[in-house]
Amino acid sequence: MSYRIHPSERVRHTIDQRAFLRVLAEHLPVENLLSDPEDLRPYECDGLSAYRTLPWIVALPDSLEQARAVLRLCRQHGVPVVARGAGTGLSGGALPVENGVLLSLAKFNRILAIDPVNRTATVQPGVRNLAVSEAAAVHGLYYAPDPSSQIACTVGGNVAENAGGVHCLKYGLTVHNVLNLKLLTLDGDLLELGTGGLDAPGYDLLALITGSEGLLGVVAELTLKLLPLPETAQVLLAAYESIEQAGEAVAAVIAAGLIPAGLEMMDNMALRAAEEFIHAGYPVDAAAIVLCEMDGAASQVQSDIARAHAVLTASGALSVQTAPDPQTRKKFWAGRKAAFPAIGRLAPDYYCMDGTIPRSRLSRVLAGIARLSEEYGMDVANVFHAGDGNLHPLILYDANRPGDLEKAEEFGGRILELCISAGGTLSGEHGVGVEKISQMCAQFTEAELRLFHAVKAVFDPDGLLNPGKAIPTLPRCAEFGALHVHGGKLPHPELERF
């Protein structure tokens, strides 16, 4: 279905497609410009495939100067432009606009330098996340952020969404692992943000750009922080008879002062699907499992694993397994990383949410999701970066059944509002994109939204960069509030106890 862009978010221009193609062709080879509907079709959506819009034109520059030219010409003619990496995003952040240019960075895919002395990698934005670690491994180094899509997603897209992964609890999100970057503005200017040091004078524009979802500029080059490969890593698998118990166990691990490299959780539906798909050795009768990994020096890992084992056992685990060898450890993690495609085998479609809550409220929020599942009559498989409170409920539905997608969307919105009411936020790593833009009206006040728009206007005064994404207009929020939010409270009486 097409994304329902709010009238206040539309960008209009007067130049026709053929005329603009001729203008672009003065700066890019003709073969780098796509306009035939069949050529445009692969770009009509990202990983959130529920929404589809055919782009007006796709531009595939293969040099910095070509990319600058595209941006300058879009600014000159008032044409909206959406930057796209690998298209693995799950919030519709790279969804094209029907009268705009989709700027693909697929050809910017070179690793420019690996510096083992300073432990950095300088790369173009189209480099795959996993490729950075593969290139650095010969030096005993790796790149820590590891989203589940790391085999395909690009580092430029990771910056746009501030991606995390199963190891972000200990090693941080993308924002904590980028040292500097080069940014193309809509005017085609090249800015260099960040520094090789721990701090720099002036505003922290590097942090501002990370997670800005393509609304402020286009990343052209990045310098990433590399870490030494851990001496050893060990993982525990704990099984629980209730999902609430598992949630309390996660909070107990953190409360004990432990900092796992990864602390993940899966409910029964998710772990069964992953087991049938990967054969990871999961206990399929458990209501939920917790994966807890420690890494570092061998002596420290041995001590931390023993402490974590004691905490998980004391929290009521039915069983706690220690992976006996590296192969079993890899299988445990392979099941978790394959959870999304595995769950895709359970229903024709699923709608993946991404909210974050305080860890202490994990079990209560999970109970709230279960109540909503009963209310909507839709199954939910739950997969979490539990250590940092990042939830990924997957709502199962059938897009071919009339009304199912709309019901799944409404259900997903209520889950996000549940997260907000619990003191959390509506996104942990997938970004807002088009998926969560209306719920932004519940997360932020009018004054805060005005400030967001003021920041965007500094970089993009005409609103041409990725319009209709991430930051809602005040007219959209006025409409959302009139229909959905009453007296400043979210309409969920079951949340009042939070």
How does this model look, in words?
There is one protein chain. The longest helix has 18 residues, at 404-421. The protein has 17 helices and 19 strands. It has 4 domains: 7-104, Uridine Diphospho-n-acetylenolpyruvylglucosamine Reductase, domain 2 (2-Layer Sandwich); 111-228, 2-Layer Sandwich (Uridine Diphospho-n-acetylenolpyruvylglucosamine Reductase, domain 3), CATH 3.30.465; 232-342, Alpha-Beta Plaits (2-Layer Sandwich); 347-495, Alpha-Beta Plaits (2-Layer Sandwich), CATH 3.30.70.2740. By secondary structure, the chain is an alpha+beta fold. Strands 12, 13, 14, 15, 16, 17, 18 and 19 form an 8-stranded antiparallel β-sheet that branches. The chain has a 5-stranded antiparallel β-sheet with strand order 5-6-10-8-9. The chain has a 4-stranded mixed β-sheet with strand order 1-2-4-3, with helices on one face.
* CATH architecture assignment of the largest domain: 2-Layer Sandwich
- Structural class by sheet pairing and helices: alpha+beta
Low-confidence stretches: 485-498
Rg on CA atoms, Å: 23 Å
Distance between the termini: 35 Å
Strand content: 15-25%
Shape: globular
Q: How many strands appear in the DSSP assignment?
A: 19
CATH fold-level topology of the largest domain: Alpha-Beta Plaits
The total number of structural domains is: 4
Count of separate DSSP helical elements: 17
The level-1 CATH class of the largest domain:
Alpha Beta
* Helix proportion: 25-40%
Mean pLDDT: 93
Q: Tell me about the biggest sheet?
A: 8 strands, antiparallel
